[in-house]
Fold these 2 entries.
Entry 1:
Amino acid sequence: MMESDPKPAPEEVLVLNHNYQPLNITSARRAILLMCAGKAHPLEIDSRTFHAERIEIRMPTVVRLDYYVRRPVPILRPNRKSIFARDRYSCQYCGTTSGALTLDHIIPRDKGGSSEWENLVCCCTKCNNLKGNRSPEEAGLKLRKFPRRPKYIPYINYTRFLHAVRNPAWLPYLEPYGDGSQKSPERVVYYSSLQPA
Ligand SMILES: [Zn+2]
């Protein structure tokens, strides 16, 4: 199965809670309805305008709710979808983003490897076949970066959140909640050297 990064949708608006926490991504139409109902104010607008009856509204790109929405903290489990999103749909051994991708247990399950964030990576089928039922060290493979549990679990769907960070208008509002990967260069490390002795 081919999987790739979802493409950006235009006309989307980032909705922040009253405390500035990213809450949702919605359509421009819904965001304008929130503004007209006095439930939200724009924080960022772009050059486009939206005409409704006799009024002209500048198109919002980020709005903030005028009231606080209380929501339970979502639970994000490591699964195929969330691991692929964390690893930006790229093989964590060779870096390819094309071809079939699969989920790799770094330390194989039957050798005691867990199904946690730290032991799962996105992997191309070529590297997966090469690795077989071995650790990366045994197979002579290097991980491109140390796999971690995401620091922040967003209210926005995790895959969409990681994608949304690439929108320059949204980045300042999302960055405090991101994993910092858009800033720090990729480190090349041997997984084995990071394992506790
Ligand atoms: Zn690969």
Entry 2:
Amino acid sequence: MGKMDSSRTQNWKNSLIYLTFLLTIIHLIIETHFSHNLLFWNKESVRVKKISDLPLRFRYDGTFKILQVADMHYGSGSITRCRDVLASQFEFCSDHNTTRFLKRVIHDENPDFIAFTGDNIFGSSSPDAAESLFKAFGPAMESGLPWAAVLGNHDQESSMNREELMSFISLMDYSVSQIYPSTNGSMMTKIDGFGNYNLQVYGAPGSMLANSSVLNLFFLDSGDRVVYQGIRTYNWIKDSQLRWLRQVSQEFQGQKQDPLYLTDATPLNKPPALAFFHIPIPEIPQLFYKEIVGQFQEGVACSRVNSGVLKTLVSIGDVKAVFMGHDHTNDFCGNLDGIWFCYGGGFGYHAYGKAGWPRRARIIQAELQKGKNSWIGVERIKTWKRLDDEKMSKIDEQMLWMSNLSR
Ligand SMILES: *[C@@H]1O[C@H](CO)[C@@H](O)[C@H](O)[C@H]1NC(C)=O
Ligand SMILES: *[C@@H]1O[C@H](CO)[C@@H](O)[C@H](O)[C@H]1NC(C)=O
Ligand SMILES: *[C@@H]1O[C@H](CO)[C@@H](O)[C@H](O)[C@H]1NC(C)=O
């Protein structure tokens, strides 16, 4: 008996030592992690997210300008080499050139808002997703401009899954990205994907529509890869997402107005909307045979499944243009059933591209109509691109939409 007692005591002692050891380790992990965070957060002891003024709104001059950044494919910074640049450019080219381009285009275009349309970071080249996200979105955070992102098919290939990525992105400085849509003040979590949300852009300050949304922005998660009926393909925008889109769109619809009785305080019927997502829809290949503005240089890497995105957009009617990424050397806008579909064109230097064909960004500008006494709803929406060449060339400017009331 005595022998057993002493071995029990021994076990007890061992367990105690073991427990102490464990607690010490946990303590150390928390300590180092915490101080690492403190350093990470710019040496300030308490950091909260810097918040953009919401709602987004038009400027006093009646314009609202969006910078679309498609496919940064950010890796780890200076050690991540450029792809598809001229042999002469290769040596001094890294992710830093993507950062440089982003700063440059923000400086030159002075946008009101930045929309990142996915493949913001590139899995295998970014072992630490958080670090890559900070670097990739760094210029946007420093600019203090409100910005939003959706995910592509590569973002989740490193240390965070899609839900973690969207939560992280939603917590970054000046980000107005959301993980889930919020309808009537509550988060709607029963929807496919992460990063489905809408943002409203209010009328010009001091105008009669200063407190109303005159332009709506929809962000949708087009997913990543999937095996469908035994075949590897891309994912697609699901029914739940289309139902949400339809519902929000219906809530935005104003009543039909007779232009004769229109006052500056009546929103134009059905404010226009724009949509942003990563993977092109299966109808985009049809544009190869149609008139387009820009270049169609590679096959469209879309899903084999057609979930009826185009049909939904046509029936809701307010989305006038869609902005996508994914196929880096396609940078065109083409029209399908009255809706424009525009590629951003590849932005990032670690993303595949075409040597000698400069990396590029898309600009979208909405302009308000002058009412009797003040700015009213959106009159027209234009787009153009900026190249990361010596002069930051502006190319392919085109009109995407004009209000019936101004025609
Ligand atoms: C990348 O940036 C470096 C300087 O930071 C510059 O010298 C080089 O020309 C850039 N490369 C490209 C392809 O823009
Ligand atoms: C939000 O509220 C409005 C008015 O009460 C209602 O018609 C609409 O269906 C609600 N939307 C959702 C998503 O619950
Ligand atoms: C918009 O809201 C602000 C603040 O509540 C108010 O002062 C202003 O008069 C409103 N403008 C219009 C056109 O309703």
